[in-house]
Amino acid sequence: MKKINCIIIDDEPLGRDLVESFAKEVSYLNIMGIFDNPVTALSFLEENSVELIFSDIEMPKINGLDFLRTLENPPVFIFITAYREFALDGFDTGATDYLVKPVRFDRFLIAVQKAKNHIDLKRNSTNSQEGNEKIFIKSEGKIIKILLSEILYIEAQGDYLNVNTKSEIYSTQMTLTSMEESLQNKKFYRIQRSFILNLDFVRSVHGNMLELLNGKSISVSVNKKEELYKLLGM
């Protein structure tokens, strides 16, 4: 099961600690960050992919409700607060659930399961759209259409690229940077200077080595490892 990347926002240390301890008990949640205010969380969201936010409502500078309204494409939200009167406002903003402090673990699990259902629907919708995405490359004098969902990895060799798909390998004359720009797909990640990898085909990670579903092993650059782990939800 692919993990759900989440963050926690609460200006009270006890509130943050409680949600963190609960989230660690749920195997499919991956805590990417913990913040004491939405402003610092916003900077993090601009650089990282997050699917779920646990947020307090009453906080300095900007409250959780207004913070959600500022996000153009917000992740799934679960609000956690001591004030029941905020419940209606919380749902009006599109939050998935609303938990009242002190939060019980069983109630937390119900909210997380609701969030997971929403996220699964979004992922399935995205996967359906991405399954039809394609690129065109010139190989052996022909223009060839390749579905992105068929590409395992792309390897640079001199002035050429080898596009390795599930069924064939296509050679085309272009730079890896140009290919990276043309993909514009979050499933593809440049793990080192000469490789772009489709993350859907990663079977396992051993230190700096990745094993793909076809059995091939590829090394990851040291400076790419941390970002790769985040993308894989590890």
UniProtKB/TrEMBL annotation:
InterPro entries: CheY-like_superfamily, LytR-like, LytTR_DNA-bd_dom, Sig_transdc_resp-reg_receiver. One of its GO terms (molecular function) is DNA binding. The keyword Cell cycle does not apply. Residues 5-116 form the Response regulatory domain. The modification 4-aspartylphosphate is found at D56. Keywords: Phosphoprotein. Pfam families: LytTR, Response_reg. Residues 135-234 form the HTH LytTR-type domain. The keyword Phosphoprotein applies. PANTHER family: STAGE 0 SPORULATION PROTEIN A HOMOLOG, TRANSCRIPTIONAL REGULATOR-RELATED. This is Response regulator transcription factor. The lineage of its organism: Bacteria, Pseudomonadati, Bacteroidota, Flavobacteriia, Flavobacteriales.
